[in-house]
Every structure is written in C-alpha cells, then in structure tokens.
Write a structure and sequence with these properties.
Largest sheet: none
Shape: elongated
Helix content: 55-70%
Number of strands: 0
Number of helices: 7
Strand content: under 5%
Structural class: mainly alpha
Oligomer: single chain
Order of helices and strands: HHHHHHH
Length: about 160
Amino acid sequence: MAARGAKACVGMEASDYTNPEEYPTEIHDYLATFEQCLGSVEEMLKAMMLVSRSDLQKLEPLEQAKLDLVSVYTLNSLFWVYLTIQGVNPKEHPVKQELERVKTYMNKVKEIAEKKKASKLDKGAASRFVRNALWEPSTENEKKNKGPGKGKKRKMD
C-alpha cells in the first residue's frame, strides 16, 4: 500500500498536497523537508552540470578523483531513493554493491589525501637535531677550551 502511494507521489511537490485528507498530517513536516532537500540537490546538480569538462581537467588528479567519486555516489544514492519510491528493496539490488564499491574507493582516496598532508620527516635534519641536543663535551674538549688562548696555540720563534 505504501509503495503504491509512493508511486503516485513521483513528480509532485509537497506543496501539491494541500488537502490534509490526501495524506497523514503527521508527515507534512517530513514532506516539506524532503522537498527542500530535493531543491538543494537539484541546485547542486545544475551547478555541476554548468562546469565545463575542460575546467574540470585543470584540477589536480586527486581533486578530479574526489569529484568523480562524489558524483557517482550521488547518482547511485538518487537511484537508491528512486528504487525505494518504486517499491523495490534497494538492499537486494546491484546498486547496493555499487555504493559499497564507491565507498571503498572514497576511503582509498581519503587515505591518499591524508598521506599527502602528513608532514614529511627529514631524517638527516632530525638526526643532527638529536645529536646536537644530546651532545656533551668530553673532558679533553673542556681542558682545551679552558686554556688561556681558547684556540690554536701559536709557536713563538
């Protein structure tokens, strides 16, 4: 029954339901929120469609991968919603595996981005820093430095 009611709602807006006898009043707020969310998704998709492919190719490869993955995930999520509206269980549809596959790639891209942001260790500089921080003069060096000349001795002729 709910699936048949959902099929009738396709292509209609929440504001089309002004007669409270057509749907339960307790879902009115949910429908209004859903309509607002759909509007914002539509605006984002329009904005993405306006960007030319040549502009997208100017992005760094990591940024291109992020954009492609978000686009694929969004489209599959919308298809998930469409299946739900049509009364099909999306958990039993191949779109579920596709969403999981995209999530896996999103995690891989996230790991790559985190590795890129991680500070790089200059081993040579770190070893010099530690060596100099822990250096203590030996007793021979102290005796040499305490002498009156504090430097090389000159021979006097």
